[in-house]
Fold each of these.
Amino acid sequence: MAPTVPSVNDLCVKDLAQSPDLKSIPSQFTFINDSKGSNSDSLPVVDFSMLVSDNADQRSIALLDIRKACEDWGFFVLINHGIPESLMKAIIDASLEFFDLPEEEKRRYEAKSASDPIKAGSGTANTANNKILLWRDFMKSYVHPNFYCPEKPQHLRYVVSEYSEKSRWVLRKLLQGICENLELEAGSMDEAMNLDSCFQLYAANFYPPCPQPDLAIGIPPHTDHGLLTFLIHNGVAGLQIEHNGEWFHTNSPKNSILVNTADHLEIFSNGRYKSVKHRAVVNTEATRISVVLANGPAPDVVVSPSEELVKRDGRALYGPMKYIEYVETMLSNQYGGKGNLECLKIQADYHE
Ligand code: OGA
Ligand code: NI
């Protein structure tokens, strides 16, 4: 009798990947990547301890590194950020345990609407002519200003809340540095975006080994909502960043945080710092897990470009939109490049 692979609709990708006879991916997962990705030996690195140092020279070096990273790549590797290695390991381990829970437990969080504060599933993406399934399982929850977290595993809520609190401090320092680089008052973003109530979305992505990684995708090319996204992982690489029209692997030193610029930093900076396109690729060998913290303005803030920058530029390049509406439109549209941000772009008036 021919071996049977269970129907993909009944399975999370984790279980599908464990089917003993799986030699090729079911056709619904087929996604042809446009290129494989190259290594770069010049990925920007920012030393956080220099940014918060009392030594003015050290601080200016860090500010310059942040400025170049935001202008050139929209991405940097953050080192010496002060978040304990034990906490980073604990959040990866606790997130892994979530994916090991019985199916019924995970299904409790199957999304019914875009505004559910906790969502779990596998996800789809729209390609030019059809909908495809993604080679990953995920769990997402809103963790600030209101904190939501699955009940199990029990210690998940403790580590996620610790990690989110410590990350907020790092975030605020980075954003103050970015304001200085934009020649704005250091606290101007704190005020305009009401960062005391900044929105944080925690997402754990689980990418099991894939028999045909070149024919599948973990997450297709997209940009993130928010200001800066923080990503850590279990040591298995998979995040790629687009730079000058080419894809690059992001290999990172242990205990570092991968930071990328997101849509609302592009909006706030009136287009100076572009939100970077990125994707997650999969491999045949090892399970990869990433823990992502999307950091944005407060949910109710209607985000527009900085007034001061609009004054300097003579016009706003993006229209206003309430942040949480943007997030929830994006979560319900699935992945589609830079779609949402495109809708907010204001065309220049045509003058003879
Ligand atoms: C995301 C994302 C990439 C990764 O969750 O938005 O881009 O490497 N993840 O998991
Ligand atoms: Ni992303």
Note: The radius of gyration is 20 Å.
Amino acid sequence: MRIGILNSGGDCPGLNAVIHGVVSAASKLGWEVVGFRDGFEGLLPPGDYTLLDPSRTIGIMKLGGTILGTTNKGHFVAKVGDGKATTVPADVLEKAKATLRHLEIGALIIVGGDGSMTTALQLFQEGIPVIGVPKTIDNDLAATAMTFGFMSAVAAVVDALDRLHTTAESHKRVMVLEVMGRHAGWIALYGGIGGGADIILLPEIPFSMRRVADVINRRDAQGHHSTLVVVAEGAHLETGETVTREKAGPKGEDRLGGIGERVARMAQELTGKEARECTLGHLQRGGPPTSLDRILALRFGVKAVQLVQEGRFGRMVSYLQYKVGDVAIEEAVSKLRLVEKDNDLVQSARSVGISFGDEID
Ligand code: F6P
């Protein structure tokens, strides 16, 4: 038996642990593993790949990024603009099939987020035996309660807030930290609570800058002269728009960024207090995974091999109710898990005085 593995979409800490899990579990069964480079692009003829065995993957669990490379662009993009699904061209799918046939790949493990699972589904519908492994630091897939990489991103946010806290206090400033989170504000929510933010702004909870300014002024009057604000990159302006650094072309998604700067500027204008902005960006995606992310990722890799062994193709590994299980890829795609207003974490945050910039106190 020979199986293939590829990563697709943005990278995140834990991808190498998945690869190690897959390679080690497969090698125990006497299988060969072919690692395709740079996402689905590695499937294009003649195929860009490398043979993987445990001697190549032992010790990579602690490394961020992916030894296989990845991309969120290219020929296999299945999500465009505002996240709508699109079809991968038939000739591209045929080319991928030809490479897999030529290399005698019996199953393909695809590690990726919602867009990559949409591509995976199309490959599966074309008759390719695929298994999906969910990956997104945004942690916004409804079919899994947790994805690896998320907690590593949260750790980076908490560390950044610890650092911003001391400089904010010294200068009696408002510090705004922009973090990742395209559709869902989980990184901002967990990171903001863990790092002691005073205001958290999410894509899911409409906020008003007037309200944000009121909170800053009220804190000032109470003797708290500095305020920490965390804003998710996908949080909406009052007009309902998101702030983008670069509009997407016909393929791919807009590059978000800039909401932190807007919030800082408006906070300064409305309160008269000095405000500064910091964008954490890819510091959240790089670096070593936390211990829990390593373990979760390794378990996901092992489970993927188990699904191949059982011949249960078209399934995606998932983590639900503290167990690693699986769901149909078809049921998993295009279903996002967003932060709901009455989420207990939001309620807990409100209870300790964190504001979401909305009208509720
Ligand atoms: O979807 C994951 C994500 O990290 C988003 O939060 C962010 O908008 C995007 O990827 C960044 O992608 P890129 O690496 O292409 O800038």
Note: Residues 2-148+289-332 form a domain with the Rossmann fold fold (CATH 3.40.50.450).
